[in-house]
Each structure stands twice: as C-alpha cells, then as structure tokens.
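Sat 14:20. Reprocessing the chain from the morning session after the first attempt stalled halfway. Input below, unchanged.
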Amino acid sequence: MTTNKLNVWDWDLRVRERNLKAGMITEKELEKYLAAVPDAEAQTESFATPQPALDPPDEPEEVGDEGDEADETDSTDEA
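Finished this time. Tokens:
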C-alpha cells in the first residue's frame, strides 16, 4: 500500500470505512494516523445552533378563518 498518495480527505470519517474495505488504508495505518492527529479540544468553544427540522416551532394560528367562513355564509344566503 502506498499511503503517500492519500490526502486528508481519504481519512475522513465519511469515507474511512470504505477505504479500509477497499484496502486503500490498513487498520495499522489508521491507528498511526489517529495517533498523530493533535488534540484541539482546549481550543474549541461550544455553541448552539437552532435545528428547525428537529424541533419545529409551534404552528401559528391561521388568521382570517372566522372571517372567511362568514363571507361564505353570506354569499350562500344571497344565492
């Protein structure tokens, strides 16, 4: 195996398993790569991001429903 042809994207979590199965990287190479990755936890800052798809807001009440029904009743009475 020639790891010198691999770039950082080849180690990405989203493709790592596929690369292992295809033989592009070995478990030993993966362990070596992960051991060399610096721990940046002290340099991070947590923050919250709203996720509307996971927690949708309450549905607003429809405006004008009562007025529409009254209009329909009025037009039916005249017809």
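The longest helix spans residues 65-78.
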